[in-house]
């Protein structure tokens, strides 16, 4: 099997696993910059550690990495309408998105879970970088409120976690 065939087969197999959808964002030159991430994992409660995976060829990641603090915001059903904004060119992504800054981290208003983080390491993960982040601030909303259930990415579809 060629590496291209293996990559296609892996993509199909991996797509079965639902992953939470988050936005990673920071202030860059005084303006919000960010990207949608479909690979967010929690690792440690003490200290609070999470990870995201970013494509090695991402043009957004170097800007975020150099910002110092990065906001991570969980996308919920209430925030579903912002997903198309992150398909826009990077300088247009926050035009119709409500956000606030905490230090240099940018978090989305109404996110049921938002955190400010700092990069502690990057690990080679093939065509991606696995980025370990330490939580410096954490904000949560009541998760039983309507619309606060997370959106997950599974089989190339954004799915609601509403029961």
TrEMBL record:
SMART domains: Flavin_Reduct. Belongs to the non-flavoprotein flavin reductase family. PANTHER family: FLAVIN REDUCTASE, FLAVIN-DEPENDENT MONOOXYGENASE, REDUCTASE SUBUNIT HSAB. This is Flavin reductase family protein. Keywords: Oxidoreductase. SUPFAM superfamilies: FMN-binding split barrel. InterPro entries: Flavin_Rdtase-like_dom, NADH-dep_flavin_reductase, Split_barrel_FMN-bd. Residues 14-160 form the Flavin reductase like domain.
């Amino acid at each position: 099997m060629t590496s291209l065939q293996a990559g296609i087969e892996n993509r199909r197999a991996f797509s079965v696993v639902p992953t939470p959808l988050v936005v990673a964002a920071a202030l860059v030159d005084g303006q919000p910059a960010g990207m949608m991430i479909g690979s967010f994992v929690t690792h440690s409660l003490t200290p609070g550690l999470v990870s995201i995976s970013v494509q090695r060829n991402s043009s957004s990641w170097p800007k975020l990495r150099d910002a110092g603090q990065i906001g991570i915001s969980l996308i919920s059903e209430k925030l579903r309408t912002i997903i198309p904004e992150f398909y826009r060119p990077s300088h247009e992504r926050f035009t119709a998105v409500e956000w606030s800054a905490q230090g240099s981290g940018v978090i989305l208003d109404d996110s049921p879970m938002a955190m400010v983080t700092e990069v502690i390491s990057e690990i080679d993960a093939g065509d991606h970088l696995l980025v370990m982040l330490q939580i410096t601030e954490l904000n949560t909303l009541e998760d039983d409120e309507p619309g606060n259930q997370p959106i997950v990415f599974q089989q190339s579809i954004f799915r609601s976690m509403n029961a």
